[in-house]
Amino acid sequence: MRRLLLCAVCVCLPVALGATVLIPIEFRELVTVSTAIVHGRVADVHAEWTDGRRNVETLVTVEAREYLKGDLGSSVTVRVPGGQIGRYRTVFIGAPEFLVDDEVVLFLKGRAIVGLSQGAFRVEPDARTGRPMVVSPMVMSVDDSAQRVVRGDARRRPVAIEVFRETVRQILAGGGR
After folding, report:
1. pTM of the complete model beyond 0.85
2. Could you say which of 53, 91, 128, 142 is the most buried, measured as most Cβ atoms within 10 Å of its Cβ?
3. Beta strand extents in 1-137 (DSSP E only)
């Protein structure tokens, strides 16, 4: 009888549930809310304990090649939630992962990446031409039309870095309307 009563009490107690929800950000908004947009190469990646050894964060240092917006100096270090120290690993859904020598374009607000993975674009050479391409960009409309972000959308192809730069400049010139 006591077990039944205990089970009934446990079932009736409110339970706090937590979840991570990533809301897609439009490219125009990504550009306008960022205080700095840096194109560069990852020079260092290392993890550190936070919250009294309860969580791990990764510090990513990027050597800046150019700033498309703002200027944080010749190198910038950003904190990314999650990472691994020895056998201990903290996983944060939506957080980008980096390796030394990755070429990236990061959209920053202060020293944080805007929108987690949505604000971290990889730059890789095209297999045929060797030309630097921004891989899997988000929707990059420069007009005022609303667009849906669709997983696996065939229109999301690699874009030449020059086209990517120009798109950012057009949005900045338009005042981010």
Report:
1. no
2. 142
3. 36-50, 55-69, 75-81, 83-85, 88-90, 103-109, 112-113, 120-125, 132-135
